[in-house]
Write a structure and sequence with these properties.
The chain contains seven helices and eleven strands. By secondary structure, it is of the alpha+beta class. It folds into two domains: 93 residues, Gcn5-related N-acetyltransferase (GNAT) (Aminopeptidase, 3-Layer(aba) Sandwich); 106 residues, Gcn5-related N-acetyltransferase (GNAT) (Aminopeptidase). Strands 1-2-3-4-11-5-10-9-8-7-6 form an eleven-stranded mixed β-sheet, sandwiched between helices. This is GNAT family N-acetyltransferase.
C-alpha cells in the first residue's frame, strides 16, 4: 500500500459561506440555506472552556435566529476530544454529540477495486431528476422543507455553474443507482455526498462507484469524511482507505 498524500481536515470542502475568521473560530452563515446544519456553524480552532462556550451558544443563537436557522452547530478542533466537563454540559443542554472521521487512498489503488463498471455522469439540468430521485429519498428524515431548500440550491448551482461541487449520478445501463459529489484539487479528489439507492445497496455498487472515482482521480489522493458510527466506514477500510483524522461536533435543534 502506498503512502497517501497528507491532507488536513481543515482543508476539506465546506458548503457554507465563511463570514468571519478569528483567532478562536471560523464562522459560517448561509442565509440561502438556513436549514442546512453544515452550512451554518462555528468551527473552533482550539477548544473553548465551558464558560466561553456558553457565551458562544448565546451569540450563535442570535445569529441563527436572524436568518431562520433553527439549530446550533459547533465543530471542535481536529483530533481533540472534548473534556468531561464539556461533555457533561453538552448533555445537560440537550446537544447531540457527533464525530466524523477522515479517510484517504491513492486513486490508482482505488481504481483496482473491481473491473465491474458503472458510468459516472456529471449531471446537467437534463439529468437532475435522476439525482433528486435518490437524494430526496435518502434525505426524507430531514423533512420536506429541507429537501425543497436543498433541491433549489443544487438546481441553481448546476444551472449557473456555481460552486466547487460537481454533482454526479452513477448509472448501470440506463438505471440510476447512486449519487456523489466531487471536489477537484491539484493533488486530491474529495468525495462528498456519496450514496447508493436503497434498492441497490449491498449489491456491490458502492465498490463499483468507488473504482470509477479512483479512475477519475488518477494519481491524486481520494479523500472522504464519514460518520464515526456509520457502518459504511467499515467498507472504506476494507477497500484500503487509510484513517487520518477525527473531529467532534455538537448539534442542538432549537424549538
Amino acid at each position: 500500500m502506498r503512502q497517501v498524500h497528507h491532507v488536513s481536515m481543515n482543508e476539506i470542502y465546506t458548503d457554507g459561506n465563511n463570514v468571519e475568521t478569528t483567532e478562536r473560530y471560523t464562522r459560517y452563515l448561509t442565509p440561502e440555506q438556513p436549514l442546512k446544519f453544515d452550512a451554518n456553524k462555528w468551527r473552533y480552532h482550539y477548544m473553548p472552556d465551558v464558560l466561553t462556550f456558553k457565551g458562544d451558544m448565546l451569540h450563535q443563537q442570535q445569529q441563527h435566529r436572524n436568518q431562520n436557522s433553527q439549530h446550533l452547530n459547533f465543530e471542535f478542533p481536529v483530533d481533540v476530544r472534548p473534556s468531561s466537563d464539556m461533555l457533561r454540559m453538552l448533555r445537560e443542554n440537550g446537544f447531540e454529540l457527533g464525530c466524523v472521521e477522515m479517510y484517504a487512498i491513492e486513486g490508482t489503488e482505488l481504481a483496482q477495486l473491481t473491473e465491474k463498471e458503472v458510468v459516472l455522469k456529471q449531471i446537467s439540468v437534463a439529468q437532475i431528476e435522476d439525482y433528486f430521485k435518490i437524494f430526496n429519498e435518502l434525505s426524507a428524515s430531514y423533512g420536506q422543507a429541507y429537501i425543497e431548500e436543498a433541491n433549489h440550491h443544487i438546481q441553481n448551482e448546476i444551472a449557473h455553474g456555481q460552486g466547487q461541487l460537481e454533482y454526479y449520478v452513477a448509472y448501470d445501463g440506463h438505471c440510476p443507482v447512486g449519487i456523489l459529489n466531487l471536489i477537484q484539487g491539484e493533488q486530491t479528489l474529495e468525495l462528498d455526498g456519496f450514496a447508493v439507492h436503497t434498492d441497490y445497496q449491498r449489491k456491490g455498487y458502492g465498490t463499483r462507484i468507488q473504482a470509477q472515482v479512483g479512475k477519475l482521480a488518477g494519481k491524486r489522493t481520494v479523500v472522504l469524511v464519514a460518520d464515526s458510527e456509520d457502518t459504511a466506514k467499515e467498507m472504506y477500510i476494507k477497500q484500503g482507505y487509510t484513517y487520518l483524522h477525527y473531529r467532534y461536533s455538537a448539534l442542538l435543534e432549537l424549538k
